[in-house]
Amino acid sequence: MTTLVLDNGAYTAKIGYSHEKVSVIPNCQFRSKTSRLKTFTASQLDEIKDPSGLFYILPFQKGYLVNWDVQRKVWDHLFGKEMFKVDFADTSIVITEPYFNFTSIQESMNEILNFKRSSGSLSAHRYFQENSSELCCIVVDSGFSFTHIVPYCRGKKMKDGICRLNVGGKLLTNHFKEIISYRQLHVMDETYVLNQVKEDVCYVSQDFYKDMEIAQLKGEDNTVMRDYVLPDFSAIKKGFCKPPEEMNFTGKYKSGEQILRLSNERFAVPEMLFHPSDIGIQEMGIPEALVNSVHNLPEEMQPHFFKNIVLTGGNTLFPGFRDRVYKEVRSLTPTDFDVSVVQPNNPICYSWEGGKLLSENPDFDEMVVTREDYEENGHFICEEKFDI
Amino acid sequence: MVEKKIVVRSQDTNQHRVLDRATRQRRLTRQLEALEKDNFQDDPHASLPQLAKRLPQFDESHESGKKRKKTRGDHFKQRFRKNFQALLEEENLSVSEGPNYLSACAESSKLPQRHFCAVCGFPSNYTCVSCGARYCCVRCLGTHHETRCLKWTV
Ligand SMILES: Nc1ncnc2c1ncn2[C@@H]1O[C@H](COP(=O)(O)OP(=O)(O)OP(=O)(O)O)[C@@H](O)[C@H]1O
Ligand SMILES: [Mg+2]
Ligand SMILES: [Zn+2]
Ligand SMILES: [Zn+2]
């Protein structure tokens, strides 16, 4: 029996056999204005030479699977001969699903998959394996759709502490597109390109108002400002920042390159994760929500959470993210508590790694729901075995 | 009751029109909803009318009558064509006990609201009388009046 682990994210699927490496593949379909006859699925994105104006067809809405037709096409592609060539009779599939998944989605998933967990619980498993002396940890999973903060104690999630911020990478990219379109260049249709710009230039500020002051300075004193050369997908395949020595503070360049000039956008966009209320989402930011969540848990456990904060998901890759979380959590907790914030090497695939470790667990076979189990016992058996 | 989009309080000049609270709130809601959108352009296939029938549309519930191999869970396909909102309502969470999707949402922050210029994004000290947007200087206010303010329908 082999095991295929699939962290089925709203943006990318993190997938691989438990004895192999993980691959990160878009969990969606695409249409391009240059190939008007074809719908591209998942990794076929690579076939699109010019992804400007790329049109996305996503299976998820607000983090929950709603578009099954699209999901089926992606799964057929992933499981089929083009990619993982899954022999279903001889493979257990470990898949993730979101917290508080809707009943009907769960039931649909039970029908095809053998083992479900939230990606946070796989991350917690990964963390406890490496830090076996720790009793508790609190997982921050900041992905595409939203951000979850979830405390785990001895491998069990503490439901009362689960907190969701409706801020994720999708919102950041859309907000980024909106302000750039209003201030300098219409890019509302360029989700693909601007998402890349976001990942290339944005960072989490350590001193927000100081950076705001710097971003207002003229000339070389403005160390925040960057000129980003947009890709044209012929001569320039990938966008990049002008190296500082080539930067021209008038913003005028001889070559015909298309430039985006970025200043406060660089740190004001990721700032939504720390102050959602800046754009009118009346929710706490990540550090405040984390501290609040811990305060809802039994008092004797609280110190254990503060010293085991684990950051996962794509947004935690913004430079400065970890330090800012540390700094704010530190300032909001009593000084006699230790605070430790761990940023794994690969925060996007951390939960996949947890799934891999879990499948190597000697008890794993007892945790899966086989086809026979399911046919005999229905959803009931899944409810019993899957602690999402 | 028919709701009017813009409430006109004083009518001497356009500059003195003031949006009421409900209108401002609607604007904000629409802005936030736009941040959830997958695409802002049209589907490139939508403009190919003669092909639209043959190509699978992502909203379309079924492909042509061709027989496919039956796999595990094939039948769920038809059952679930509900959007997020419908699924949420179906769960009936307002009457359920214990933590759930709605109760897990982060509370509002205890920190003071911060304000940024709607035009340039820098910290702002002033509020537009007409629409409540924030601005930082006369220049940005000018841009705001010319481009958004009362003209803007998101
Ligand atoms: N280096 C980076 N810097 C900033 N953001 C990044 C980086 N790499 C990826 N991201 C962002 O992270 C998001 C995807 O994160 P992740 O893969 O954790 O989400 P997901 O698991 O697919 O979604 P979800 O958990 O919401 O279902 C995207 O919005 C992407 O733009
Ligand atoms: Mg995820
Ligand atoms: Zn301004
Ligand atoms: Zn105004």
What's the topology here?
The complex is a heterodimer of chains A (388) and B (154).
Chain A: E1 2-8, E2 12-17, E3 23-26, E4 29-31, E5 40-41, E6 55-57, E7 60-61, E8 64-65, H1 68-79, E9 91-96, H2 103-110, E10 115-117, H3 119-130, E11 136-142, E12 147-153, E13 156-157, E14 163-165, H4 169-183, H5 191-201, H6 208-215, E15 226-229, E16 240-241, E17 259-262, H7 265-268, H8 286-295, H9 302-306, E18 309-312, H10 321-332, E19 341-342, H11 350-359, H12 364-367, H13 371-377, H14 379-385
Parallel strand pairs in A: 1-9, 9-10, 11-18, 18-19
Antiparallel strand pairs in A: 1-2, 2-3, 4-5, 4-6, 7-8, 11-12, 12-13, 12-14, 15-16, 15-17
Chain B: H1 21-34, H2 49-52, H3 76-79, H4 84-91, E1 126-127, E2 134-135, H5 138-147
Antiparallel strand pairs in B: 1-2
The complex binds adenosine-5'-triphosphate, magnesium ion and zinc ion (2 copies).
The site of adenosine-5'-triphosphate has 20 residues of chain A, from helix 4 and helix 5.
Main location (chain A): cytoplasm
Protein name (chain A): Actin-related protein 6
Family (chain A): Belongs to the actin family. ARP6 subfamily.
Q: Distance between termini of chain B?
A: 23 Å
Approximate shape of chain A = globular
| Spatial strand order of the main sheet of chain B | 1-2
Task: Note the total helix count of chain B.
Answer: 5
Region (Disordered) (chain B): 51-75
Pfam families (chain B): zf-HIT
Keywords (chain B): Metal-binding, Zinc, Zinc-finger
Biased composition (Basic residues) (chain B): 65-75
Task: Outline the structure in words.
The complex is a heterodimer of chains A (388) and B (154). Chain A is an alpha+beta fold and 388 residues long. Helices cover 32% and strands 19% of the residues of chain A. Chain A contains 14 helices and 19 strands. Chain A has helices at 68-79, 103-110, 119-130, 169-183, 191-201, 208-215, 265-268, 286-295, 302-306, 321-332, 350-359, 364-367, 371-377, 379-385, and strands spanning 2-8, 12-17, 23-26, 29-31, 40-41, 55-57, 60-61, 64-65, 91-96, 115-117, 136-142, 147-153, 156-157, 163-165, 226-229, 240-241, 259-262, 309-312, 341-342. In chain A, the strands form five sheets. In chain A, strands 11, 12, 13, 14, 18 and 19 form a six-stranded mixed β-sheet that branches. A five-stranded mixed β-sheet of chain A has the order 3-2-1-9-10. In chain A, strand 11 (136-142) and strand 12 (147-153) form a beta hairpin. In chain A, helix 3 (119-130) packs across helix 11, helix 4 (169-183) crosses helix 5 and helix 8 (286-295) crosses helix 10 (321-332). The radius of gyration of chain A is 22 Å and the shape is globular. The two termini of chain A are 23 Å apart. The mean pLDDT of chain A is 94. Chain B has 154 residues and is mainly alpha-helical. Chain B has five helices and two strands. A two-stranded antiparallel sheet of chain B has the order 1-2. The longest helix of chain B is centred in the N-terminal third of the chain and has 14 residues, at 21-34. Chain B is extended. The relative contact order of chain B is 0.11. Residues 6-12 and 59-79 of chain B have low confidence and may be disordered. Chains A and B meet through strand 6, helix 1, helix 2, strand 14 and helix 4 of A and helix 1, helix 3 and helix 4 of B. The complex binds adenosine-5'-triphosphate (ATP), magnesium ion (MG) and zinc ion (2 copies). The site of adenosine-5'-triphosphate has 20 residues of chain A, from helix 4 and helix 5.
